[in-house]
Each structure stands twice: as C-alpha cells, then as structure tokens.
Amino acid sequence: MNTSPFDFHKTLASGMTPLYAFDENEDLNTQRTRATEKLKELLGMDTFTRCDPDVTVTKEEIKDGVRRIHFTVQTETGYYVHCDFLLPAEIEKPLPLCVCLQGHSNGAHISLGEDKYPGDAEDLNGGDRDFAVRAVKEGFCALAVEQRAFGENGGGGADGSQCDFAAKVAVLLGRSLIGERVWDVSRILDVVESKFSHFATLEGSVCVGNSGGGTATYYIACLEDRFSGYMPSCALCTFRDSIIDMHHCGCNYVPGVAKYFDMGDLAVMIAPRKLVVVAGVDDGIFPIHGVKESYEIIRNLYKLAGAENNCRLVVGSGGHRFYADDAWPVMHELLAR
Prior knowledge:
The protein is of the alpha/beta class. Helices cover about 35% and strands about 20% of the residues.
C-alpha cells in the first residue's frame, strides 16, 4: 500500500512517455512548430504584454580598466529589472554580448565577482560563478541580469533567493516564473539592440547560467533565437532523475510540461544553434546519468537537423558548479564554425 504521494508521483513518471517526445521519423520543422506553441502555452507566455522599456542608467564607473554600467529596464508595465554591463573601458568596436544568469544565490552581483553578503565568498570561491568577469576576459561585453525573485529583484539581498513563493503565485496567475525570466531576457535584448548597440552586439552572442540560471538559459534557448550560443550548466537532466526524484525550488517546475516533453526533447526548438551543456560528474541534484540520457536526445535532434557538431556535452570533475576552463574553449570552438 503506497501512502506517499511523492513515491506515487515517481511511479507515475516512470511509466510516462511524453506526447511530444523526439521522433526521428517525423519532420523536424513539424516537431519544432508544435513544441514551440505548446511550450509557450505551458509557460503562460500569452499573459505578457510589451511596454515602454523606460531604461534608466543609475551608475557608471571605470575601475582597473573595466567599465561597469548599472541600469534598470521596465519589462512589464510597473515591473523593472536590474542589470549591469561589464566591459573593457576602451573598445574599438562593439563586442559580442554575453548574458549572465546566476542560480540560487544572493544575487547577480556574484556574476560581477562581488562579495556583498554572507555566503557570497562560498559561491565565488572555486565555483567559477563570476560569469561576467570571466566573459569579459573571453572577449565579450558581459551583461549580468538579475532574475526575478533573486537579489535586487525580490530576492531579499542577504536573505538570498525568494523564488519558491514567487513561482507558486505565478502559477495561480496562469503564468510561470521560468516564463517571466525568459520574457525579461528577451525584452532586455530589445534594449541592447536599440540603446546599447554602440558597445554590444548580438552577433556572436552567448547566454550562460548555472543551476537556476542554467535552467533559465535552457528555456531561453528554446524561445529566444537571437543568441548565437547557449551554455546551460548544472541544470539539464531528465525530469525523472532530478526535479521529480528530489526536492527542488518551485522555479524549476512548469505545470504540465512532463506530459509533453522530457528536458532533452525541448532542444527541438534550439537546434541547430550552438549549445554547450555543462555538468558536474558528481552533481548530487542533477545526476550525471540523467544528464547523459537527456544529452543523447539532444545529440540525435541535432543530428536530424544536420548540425551534430553544433552541440557538445562538457563534464567537469566536481559537483554542482560551473566549469569555466572546460566550457569556454568549447563554446569558442563552436562559435568559430
């Protein structure tokens, strides 16, 4: 007699075949169109409305040869996102953009290499989470975006992320926190193109994130095609082996998504654009066997798209963190193709 709903859900999941699972015998464009329509519906993308971005630059400084520009963008009427550009103080031409998305932490300042609150040093030391700092070294104009319910956008500063509650309320409103994060990045790209094109270009651009930031990066890759490459880290795994099998924050969950897709199936919306999936061999919450199973679906999708060389799996030697030295050379290799 099974009295545990958690165990029962796992049993249900183990017997499910997603309705839109990848089918190598079906036309790829047909699968892509169907998947895009369904994912937009599940994320609640029809609940968003474009508005005046009302961009305000609040701070600009140059320190140690690096320029930092803080600004806010209105992505929905009455809602603003905090952002920080990081780039060399002197540039001869616009640099390719790298959007940086932190995972569950005290905020996007981690991407900027800042130790502001208790716990920040632990995030920074040995985890390669200073995405913006590294992106500048890799030749990009970095843009650290504060995700909804993190840091300055509702995360409570030193109290860290508050996304579990925000994710639940979003569901009540017929939307999802992941959908909101995808929308924010798309609207910020509009602003980059219209107001900051003198130092940032989307040609050769990349979106990168770890953990919750990696999850957002992957869904962004599905619905936002203006990036040239995507680098989700410690986020991509079969639903069965990760977010169904163990407790995760509510921001990982999209109502009904497992009925239609497993995570690898979603890549039908990404191929043939460049994709580097980063994982840790000892990641305890995104187990490597589930990562490899998902990646095999992705690899077959890219093969069907005639772009098998445009995706790559990079496995670091540790746990739940980013692996900059392993991942960035691979992304550069793919972008150069």
